[in-house]
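Hi there,

I know you've been waiting on this one. I reran it after we fixed the sequence typo, so this is the corrected version. Both the input and the resulting structure follow.
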Amino acid sequence: MKRSMAGNWAGCILLTLAMATAGAIGCGSGSSSSTSPTTQPQAASTAVLVNMGDTPFDSVLECAVTISAMSFTNTSGTSVPVTIASPMTMELAHLRGTVAPLMMQSIPQGTYNAISVTLSSATVISMTSSHSPAQQVFSMPMTVKIPLGTPFTVGSNAMVMNLDLNLATSVGTGSGGAITFTPAFDASAETATGNASATPEQGGMMQVVGNVTGLSGSTFTMGTLQGMSMSFAAGSNTQYQGMNGLTMSNMGMMSSGQILTVKATLQPSGTWNTNSVTAMMGSGGVMPIGMITATTGTPVTSMTIFPNNGIGAGMMASLLANGMTVNLSGSATYGIDDAGVSMSGLPFTPQFDATHIAAGQNIAAAGSGAMSSGSGMMGGGGFMNTGSMTAAGIELEPQGLSGTVGNASGSGFTLNLASDSAFTLLTGTSSVTVYQTAQTQLNGLTSVTNSQNVEVYGYLFYDASSYNFVAMQITAM
């Protein structure tokens, strides 16, 4: 894995753990006895969370894959298929080296040395030299067998299987400059720790977006765009945050269909403990999350985004990695999803509003009505306009960038971007100023020094044609 994060995004079916019992053995009576055929005990099953993510590749803006089948192969050579009711689509490039939940399955206990994944389609968005997005859709299916260098053993505690799509290996350029796609995955496994500080690879889920499907006491269930249904237990330490006036001071303020973002930790038992809940929009609303590729007006009155996640009325997985229009109402509210890094004490004032919004930023747009259908084609790359919406609230979301360190000091550095970086081609910006805080985590390095190649993950701010980045994490590449 390229990066660990405390607690990302966007998200599968949470199955109840089942323990199979051994078959009964019957005995006769009298001077003669007979024994009925013995039924071999079935292996007990344990919850396994399957995460997916990407190994970063800067020239790709977005990459959405649709998974139609998956199986685990044990060391005896037996294939154990997982249940996928319908194909699941996830956009991976925005994860930038971390992972997000795809599904949870109950897997027979034992040792496994390979995983097979079948993709039915993929959509790749790259940037052209003319600074416009170009889309390529690949129809498959294609099955990829992923050998595990270190076999993993499913025991009594919940496990986490992490699948990384290696974008640099998977995406290439064919004859005439056409994009090619040959999926290549890396895999690793962890045992769920249950600790609040668990990384996503250990079941520490930074952010899952979904809508409420049920509420009972201090437990609520939520569904995601990928079709994952999850049950969360809230406790005395659960934090609540509101947006657009939907402040939640207690569980009873939730309603069916309400859009939430949740941070939680997978327990060894296979259940989830809830760290924080943020109310984004009420029932009947819609919330796409994606990168801004173009803006209109000063201050901004509308923008084009490429969704990488979302939920709500009219929001479907098929919309991922396609362009859509977000219109801003005059009364729209603005916020920062900053539950992971402090914005105080910085040498600049972080601002996010209609005058401080620009291409390259990752945002969540919350609207009270359903998204309208799109028509026609957009952009030089021929991608489809999937619809439009009017946002009542906009929130700045975390994102990642990679490059080479320059001008390093104790408080930050200049991140120099590659010339073929999608961000550079989109914005015309070749470097970004990165700031470290007391909460910034360093992964694979003890300090940041010049000429290092690093990946940063955090919040991108725009002010008067310059970009500043507040890092939640910095990872050696």
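Quick highlight: The first helix runs from residue 167 to 170.

Best,
R. S.
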